[in-house]
# Entry
Amino acid sequence: MNGEWRVVNGEWRISGIQQQTKKYQLFVILLIFKLKQKVYPYHNKIKQRIRNGELVRYEYVEKYKNISPCLLLYFNTEPFIKPIREHRFAEYETILNGA
# Structure
């Protein structure tokens, strides 16, 4: 029965070791998909917008959505508000003080 397709609780499954192999393959595919999503250069784009003169103002707030504390950057183009987490404050303070 090893390696055979069968119906379990209304779902098609592969029995035995091949089932584990398929689960591993699916895990790897999902992991690669997640990593590709995280490659978005969030901070690089924000810094570019600051260099382009799009920044209107900024402020520190106690909480913005689920980010606490938060540095809010306000831009004159969409997206108008970009939140920055606390571990990046020092990096942005250097940029903002020089801008």
Remarks:
- The chain has a mean pLDDT of 84.
